[in-house]
Amino acid sequence: MYQSPSSLVLLLLALALIATQRSHCFVPNHSHHHHQASKSGPRMTTTSDEELIPREKLFGNPKYASPKLSPDGAYLSFLAPSVEDKVLNVFVKKTDEPLENARMITNDKSRGIRNAGWAEDSKTILYMQDKEGDENFHLWAVDVASGEEARDLTPGENVKASSLMTNKRFPEEILIGTNARDEKCFDMYRCNYKTGEMTLDTENPGDVVGWGAEDFSFEIREAVVRNQADSSTTVRIRDTSKDEWRELITFPYGENGGLVDWCADGKAAYLQSSLGRETTALLKVDLKTGETLEEVFATDKCDCGGVTLDEDTKEIRAVTYNYARTERKFWDKELENDYKVLESMAPQGAEVVCLSRTNDEKLWVVGFVRADGPTEYFVYDQTEKTTASLFVSKPDLLDYKLAPMEDVRIPTRDGMELVAYLTKAKTDEPTPLILLVHGGPWARDRWGFNPQAQWFANRGYATLQVNYRGSTGYGKTFLHKGDKQWGVGDMQHDLTDSVQWAIDQGIADKDKICVYGGSYGGYACLAGLTFTPDLYACGVDIVGPSNIKTLLDSIPPYWGPLRNGMLRKIGDVDNDEEFNQKISPLFHVDKIKAPLLIGQGANDPRVKQAEADQIAFSMKEKGIPVEYVLYPDEGHGFARPDNRIDFNGRAEQFLAKYLGGRAEQFDKPVGSTALFPLMEEQKVA
């Protein structure tokens, strides 16, 4: 089963400055569980439980997460907290064994493991882990049977591993990228993960930002190149690993696309492209000429999404796309029937998601996505068309009434339509509103279970999540209408217009609006408080930049090839100091009227601690209400549950003070590492 795309792993994900505080989960079928009525009985007008849902249950570690079948179907792995340290680790059991027989095979004691999967031998688990949020991820391997300690396959100080590729035809090998040779770019290595032997496969000439392998040969035959002069992206290919590279297609700045996979005959390939159209289409192209042979799929509503191919024939089986909710087009009738069977078992309105399949596709791990419950996982027997329940990610949440999420459309002042997601606290009257701004900004919000939205609804706040212009997935014009529109431009106007829409619709109390976000969302919070100071009653900024020039001056070395493209999107803050000051909230602190809460990780490699320090101290000096919490063992967001719960507890008290919602008592978690730089300075003075 080819899942779009297994051979092509781009480093362009570095562009998405998305704080890890946000989570998107698969959500359950409650056919085996029922909500218990709250003790006092829920009022009909409230969407969430009458009882306060404890922050620990919303933001603590899941009891179970990320189930994956081994390629041969003999084993199932999942993540769960260790008994001793309560840190997420990898557990493994035989597929037909009870859950109680699962063994913990890793021994992380700090941040927890969040990204693990099977090697093709069905005997080895591969996982990525960084150090205290520095994002220098290393690739580790652990043998399921031996119980030996995990082995670091990509050792070295300040080394980052990326672009892991596995292949069922080469079960003893993997391809992995690292920047060990040159911190600014990633070479591809061929690795025997059993012995740890690593050999250089393809050296980066310096301009490659992504690599792809052809499946049948498992050779690196694609290089994605970023042109520093014009920020165009070119796909280079070669016929074998010994042949010269040649250019297949170039996407000028403003266009979107990329190679999906080779066709089985080796003469054609599948490609996504916006050239000559508004949204990306799935095309079949000639590998010699680049000529389009067939337009396989396109929709005017949004970009083409995930592509499912037959791993052996390379025939298209299905395509997903998402304007507001996930939709699919099928070519494979058997696969379509499987989804119909699963949809018939799912709760009404749920989305079916496949998380894992065996190589023979006889067993699947599936989830039913809804907005108002925790994730429940099943094993689907494709032959018998039956499901067996695995577990619920956070079973304690099944005891509570949770709020539904609506997808809504919001008009902007210049006539555009924005897709947004609304989670109400009450159905019959205005409530305080949290404008929860997604990071990136070149990313998007999606429908589904969101613990923050559930938290806010339970405390009495509506939540609005907006795909403002500059968000991805809605075509090239929508994406690039965000260019040079940070802070005082149309990107921020979209957020302002969305708040006004919520007020006009009777959803939001105009005097009780909070702007809340991480990464770019944190920047939008600062911009909202500085450039529209009368709109918001308060703001919460998590790892948000306050000075765009200093942000770009301190990005990691391996972002270097992407920097000019970021300048085209943001604006030339390098050479235009007036523009930088215009869009950077740091230079407009005097305009802030509303209180601000800041959360920052000291090891953040994307938005450095200085971005929080400079605006926090400036606000304090000017007598503007500001609270600042720093976590010395965190990076771009808060991965450790004790720190996550700590910050959310402080945020809850902050919101209750300025918006008037409910609040659970706050007691600092035992493992929290919170520091308070503003208070420390006062002590020193």
Short descriptors:
single chain, 685 residues, alpha+beta, eight-stranded mixed β-sheet, five-stranded antiparallel β-sheet, 18% helix, disordered N terminus
SSE blueprint:
Layout: E1 2-3, E2 8-10, H1 55-59, E3 65-69, E4 75-81, E5 88-94, E6 103-104, E7 116-118, E8 124-129, E9 138-143, E10 151-152, E11 161-165, E12 173-178, E13 187-192, E14 197-202, E15 208-214, E16 219-226, E17 233-237, E18 246-251, E19 257-262, E20 268-273, E21 281-286, E22 292-297, E23 304-309, E24 316-322, E25 326-330, H2 333-345, E26 351-357, E27 363-369, E28 376-381, E29 386-392, E30 406-411, E31 417-423, E32 431-437, H3 451-459, E33 462-466, H4 476-480, H5 490-504, E34 508-518, H6 520-531, E35 538-542, H7 548-553, H8 563-570, H9 577-583, E36 596-601, H10 609-621, E37 626-631, H11 641-659, H12 677-684
Parallel strand pairs: 32-33, 32-34, 34-35, 35-36, 36-37
Antiparallel strand pairs: 1-23, 2-15, 3-4, 4-5, 5-6, 7-8, 8-9, 9-10, 11-12, 12-13, 13-14, 15-16, 16-17, 17-18, 19-20, 20-21, 21-22, 23-24, 24-25, 26-27, 27-28, 28-29, 30-31, 31-33
Structure description:
With 685 residues, the protein is α+β, with helices and mostly antiparallel strands. Helix content is 18%, strand content 31%. It contains twelve helices and 37 strands. Mean pLDDT is 92; it is low at 1-43.
Fraction in beta strands: 25-35%
End-to-end distance = 63 Å
Number of helices: 12
Number of strands: 37
The radius of gyration computed from the alpha-carbon positions, rounded to a whole number of angstroms, is: 25 Å
Q: How would you classify the quaternary structure?
A: single chain
SSE-based structural type: alpha+beta
Q: Can you give the mean pLDDT?
A: 92
Q: Enumerate the strands of the largest sheet in spatial order, edge to edge or round the barrel.
A: 30-31-33-32-34-35-36-37
Return residue spans where pLDDT drops below 50 for at least 5 consecutive residues.
Answer: 1-43
Largest sheet: 8 strands, mixed
Bulk shape: globular
Helix content: 10-25%
